[in-house]
């Protein structure tokens, strides 16, 4: 039995190899479709393992250490003395300092004081050139800062608070981000008095067995994976386990990977399967002869299946080999894209072998249905060209509808913050499988409207319906591409919308701490504002409780009408009380105050910049021991929440009446537009010169940062969106061209006949464009349906996301790739058909 099985596979492989050589074009097409995902997956898994894996983030933070202890210098020594004997520590200081720029300007940059070559710092730094700094007058610069300063090894720079000359002896990179511009100095060196001291600790024995000293009043933050961070008045301890990825983040990564892999594999299987289906159909006479010579249905099927195994194995070997070679050649490019260095190069053999095996499995899966169909076809049916009966389509339609219902039910069950991301990914995959199962019946059903269409479209639609299984495979491939783009676009928009809610101030406004106004003085504030497109510059005054640190307001029990949940989180934080008049209203609202607002301040009422604070036209202010006092309020701003701007404005007389003290507040610069980079640099120079001239010199430089969206998700969303559109367009065009190419191979007889009776090249182009339109016109709506489910499930699972429908981008994803595919498919496929006699099947 084993010998027969081996002999059968040996013969099937030999026939498949000869068939692949004889049909080089179709074989090359299948090889390319199998090779590309294997190549891309190999490059991605190797890059992820060496650069941006979840576990790498721990090394970027604390290197090879077990703990990070942070405290004041005297307390740090006491805590270090409680470590188990044999423990080893490396000092680490972090802070900000001032660096002189080549043009005479000043800028603030981060610096770290440690030995970057110490084993406990392994993974935190990469020494690119030179040596680590050893003396107090030596410094190492990151490549980003060295490029900005135009500094090379041996050059001298001015840095520090106060300034002093330092010699550049090394070029390093911080592993957590290659874009960071920073300095590295010896462990006992400080470039500012505000340096934070900590210790990287290699605990002898089991770190969990270390008995920590009491910390006094403390708060312990427990993490889901068992780690914790202890916060006290004296010191803080960061465990390695606390920084490790949580089970939720790992599950999220696993779910996203499963979803992407399944959608990509579905595209390749469907497109390759369509090519195998055409190959098996054109090979039917050869397969019929094998059956007539005594070959069993299994042996006939193995011939087609061996083709998938052979091409899958070749594609796997080429994809894995070229993927590893590409990673070795483009390491610096991978570093720039990932924004992390490649520290210890290693090949994840398990993942690479899995990619190769998956490529082979995809080849087998693509050939499975054509092989099954070939094995079940009798010799008479094969020679007679019998087609699949419609009853099979109805059965698959029922299965598909059941899968769609099941996928939707799984998504509905798991789509909440306490759900499981694996179930959401499984629901998305089941939806795609359900769409694939219903596609053949849909294609056959759409073929019924062919008589209503013009000639070219009628022929294209009838041919698609006649070969509905192959057409459905291309349709679902397009649907999978569109579904992935739709899902990720909606998820990115939801995350970007949630991030966009969190704004510190109005776009372009600049907020500086109260010490900035004191350091600059009235004249300095004028010079500072003159470097910016400033509308006004106001040193705010703040109302505080003289008996207790800070003042709070009594918020309403429910959010105001029209306030989203995400915005309400910001609204609940915008409750600072400013003391002032028209100039404060002008600076906060970027407009002139109204008569009602000025009258409210004169009459002892409050002006609200946060409408969520108003209850029945009043705002409740808590002051002293007498409890809250309700003050009449006029709302100046509705529906806009900026957590660093004051939420309430009262006059100085009102502040005294309710028992509040008045103290200096932040410096607010309102601008007519977002300042340019050169304007921000000039303003920074003015501010830092004032800080360096102050006595005593401040502990750290202040940063001039125009207000904008706090998180970078919107920009990342736009980049990801354009990338998804490009990927979707490429896959859609590829699927449509493959479908049109395969259809053209089967329509040679019809095209030759049409050419013989006088049809011109334009007719052939229109037929091919019609075939592409059928594929992408059905695939895009199905992709939209399949992509909505996983996106909705993820947004419901992630509490940080806020559902938002980007109609413009969604239409771009769904409509542009099909239109481009339709236009290109009619032109890229050879349009000229020579008049020649073609033997019709049967």
Automatic annotation (TrEMBL):
Location, primary (coarse class): membrane
Family matches, as InterPro entries: ABC3_permease_C, Macrolide_Exporter_MacB
Pfam families: FtsX
Swiss-Prot/TrEMBL keywords: Cell membrane, Membrane, Transmembrane, Transmembrane helix
Subcellular location: Cell membrane
Transmembrane spans: 256-279, 300-329, 349-371, 392-411, 423-443, 472-494, 720-745, 772-797, 809-829
Domain ABC3 transporter permease C-terminal: 261-378
Topology term for the membrane: Multi-pass membrane protein
Family to which the UniProt record says this protein belongs: Belongs to the ABC-4 integral membrane protein family.
Protein name: ABC3 transporter permease C-terminal domain-containing protein
């Amino acid at each position: 039995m084993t010998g027969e099985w081996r002999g059968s596979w040996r013969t099937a492989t030999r026939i498949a190899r000869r068939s692949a050589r004889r049909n080089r074009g179709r074989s090359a097409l299948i090889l390319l479709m199998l090779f590309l995902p294997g190549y891309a997956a190999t490059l991605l898994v190797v890059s992820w393992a060496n650069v941006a894996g979840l576990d790498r983030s721990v090394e970027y933070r604390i290197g090879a250490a077990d703990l990070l202890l942070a405290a004041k210098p005297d307390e740090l020594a006491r805590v270090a003395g409680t470590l188990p004997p044999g423990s080893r520590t490396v000092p680490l200081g972090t802070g900000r300092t001032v660096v002189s720029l080549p043009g005479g300007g000043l800028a603030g940059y981060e610096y770290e004081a440690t030995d970057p070559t110490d084993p406990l710092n392994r993974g935190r730094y990469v020494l690119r050139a030179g040596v680590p700094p050893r003396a107090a007058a030596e410094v190492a610069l990151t490549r980003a800062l060295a490029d900005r300063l135009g500094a090379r090894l041996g050059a001298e720079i001015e840095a520090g608070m106060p300034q002093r000359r330092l010699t550049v002896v090394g070029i390093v990179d911080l592993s957590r981000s290659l874009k960071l511009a920073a300095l590295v100095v010896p462990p006992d060196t400080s470039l500012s008095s505000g340096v934070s001291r900590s210790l990287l600790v290699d605990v002898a024995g089991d770190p969990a067995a270390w008995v920590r000293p009491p910390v006094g009043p403390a708060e312990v933050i427990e993490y889901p994976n068992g780690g914790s961070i202890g916060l006290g008045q004296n010191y803080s301890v960061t465990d390695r386990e606390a920084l490790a990825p949580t089970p939720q983040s790992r599950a999220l990564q696993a779910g996203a990977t499963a979803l992407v892999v399944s959608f990509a594999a579905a595209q390749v299987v469907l497109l390759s399967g369509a090519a195998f289906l055409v190959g098996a159909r054109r090979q039917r006479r050869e397969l019929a002869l094998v059956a007539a010579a005594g070959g069993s249905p299994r042996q006939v099927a193995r011939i087609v299946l061996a083709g998938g195994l052979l091409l899958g194995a070749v594609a796997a070997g080429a994809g894995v080999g070229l993927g590893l070679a590409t990673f070795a050649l483009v390491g610096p490019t991978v570093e720039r894209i990932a924004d992390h260095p490649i520290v210890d190069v290693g090949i994840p053999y398990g993942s690479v072998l899995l990619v190769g095996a998956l490529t082979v499995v995809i080849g087998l899966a693509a050939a499975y249905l054509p092989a099954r169909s070939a094995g079940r076809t009798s010799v008479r049916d094969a020679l007679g060209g019998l087609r699949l009966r419609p009853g099979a389509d109805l059965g698959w339609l029922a299965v598909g509808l059941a899968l769609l219902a099941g996928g939707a039910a799984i998504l509905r069950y798991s789509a909440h913050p306490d759900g499981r991301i694996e179930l959401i990914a499984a629901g998305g995959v089941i939806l795609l499988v359900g769409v694939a199962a219903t596609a053949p019946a849909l294609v056959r059903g759409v073929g019924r409207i062919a008589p209503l269409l013009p000639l070219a479209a009628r022929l294209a639609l009838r041919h698609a319906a006649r070969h509905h299984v192959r057409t459905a495979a291309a349709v679902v491939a397009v649907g999978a591409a569109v579904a992935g783009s739709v899902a990720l676009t909606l998820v990115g928009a939801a995350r970007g919308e949630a991030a966009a809610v969190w704004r510190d101030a109005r776009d372009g406004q600049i907020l500086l701490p109260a010490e900035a106004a004191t350091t600059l003085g009235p004249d300095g504030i004028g010079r500072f504002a003159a470097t910016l497109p400033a509308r006004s510059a106001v040193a705010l005054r703040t109302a505080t409780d003289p008996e207790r640190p800070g003042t709070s307001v009594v918020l309403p029990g429910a959010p105001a009408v029209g306030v989203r949940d995400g915005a309400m989180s910001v609204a609940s934080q915008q409750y600072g009380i400013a003391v002032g008049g028209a100039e404060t209203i002008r600076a906060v609202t970027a407009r002139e105050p109204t008569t009602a607002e000025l009258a409210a301040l004169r009459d002892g009422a409050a002006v609200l910049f946060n409408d969520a604070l108003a209850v029945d036209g009043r705002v409740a202010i808590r002051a002293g021991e007498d409890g809250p006092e309700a003050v009449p309020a006029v709302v100046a701003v509705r529906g806009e929440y900026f957590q660093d701007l004051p939420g309430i404005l009262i006059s100085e007389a009102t502040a005294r009446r309710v028992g509040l003290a008045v103290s200096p507040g932040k410096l607010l610069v309102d601008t007519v537009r977002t300042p340019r980079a050169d304007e921000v640099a000039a303003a920074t120079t003015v501010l830092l010169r004032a800080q360096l001239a102050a006595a005593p010199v401040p502990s750290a430089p202040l940063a001039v940062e125009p207000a904008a969206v706090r998180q970078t998700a919107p920009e990342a969303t736009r980049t990801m969106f354009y990338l998804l559109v490009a990927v979707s367009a490429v896959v859609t065009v590829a699927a449509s061209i493959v479908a049109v190419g395969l259809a053209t191979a089967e329509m040679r007889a019809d095209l030759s006949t049409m050419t013989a009776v006088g049809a011109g090249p334009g007719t052939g182009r229109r037929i091919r464009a019609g075939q592409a339109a059928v594929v992408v016109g059905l695939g895009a709506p199905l992709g939209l349906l399949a992509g909505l489910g996983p996106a909705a499930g993820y947004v419901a699972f992630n509490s940080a996301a806020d559902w938002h429908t980007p109609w413009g981008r969604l239409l771009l994803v769904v409509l542009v790739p099909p239109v481009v595919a339709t236009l290109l498919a009619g032109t890229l496929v050879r349009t000229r058909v020579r008049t020649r006699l073609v033997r019709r099947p049967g």
